[in-house]
Specification:
The chain has five helices and five strands. The protein is an alpha+beta fold. β4 and β5 form a beta hairpin. The two termini are 39 Å apart.
Length: 161
């Protein structure tokens, strides 16, 4: 429900195809296409394996971002494998219209989560294809923990100023 509900999101990242709220909260295909470079940049920085596209508008945008030419028609639960082993899983958008009319039920949406986990675990990506450095090649940077001084001065590095 809100930030203090005790729930935590682990191993997932949430983003949007269109990052601004257009008039009437109805983005146009041109607005989506204008935002694609931002989505491409976001996803290039993350070692993702599975994307859940909430709605056909998002599915079309993700397919455009990855230049997916041959793709299955959108439908709830449809999986679209990418050439590098990653996967796009489709779901109806959890909008009020879809949930109140029964087009998308709680059971349908709950059924996507296990499939997403299974797809993420079953797809093995070489670090090079995933766009990330393997852990044994990553440069480990040791960062000093920040601690709050409690005063108005803000935070200071642990063990010094």
């Amino acid at each position: 429900e809100h930030r203090d509900d005790g729930l935590r999101l682990l191993g997932a990242y949430i983003t949007a195809i269109v990052h601004c709220v257009p008039p009437g909260n109805k983005p146009t295909p041109q607005e989506r296409d204008n935002c694609l470079p931002h989505l491409e940049r976001e996803l290039s920085l993350l070692p993702w394996r599975v994307i859940v596209a909430l709605g056909s508008f998002a599915y079309d945008g993700v397919c455009r971002a990855f230049s997916v030419r041959k793709r299955p028609a959108f439908g709830h639960g449809v999986e679209a494998p990418l050439e590098d082993g990653r996967t796009i899983i489709c779901s109806y958008h959890p909008s009020q219209q879809n949930t109140q009319t029964g087009r998308l039920t709680r059971e349908m949406l709950d059924g996507i989560s296990p499939r997403t986990r299974l797809a993420a675990l079953s797809r093995t990506l070489s670090p090079k294809r995933a766009g990330v450095s393997p852990p044994w090649r990553r440069r480990v940077r040791r960062r000093r923990r920040l601690r709050c001084s409690g005063s108005h001065g803000g935070c200071r590095r642990a063990g010094g100023r």
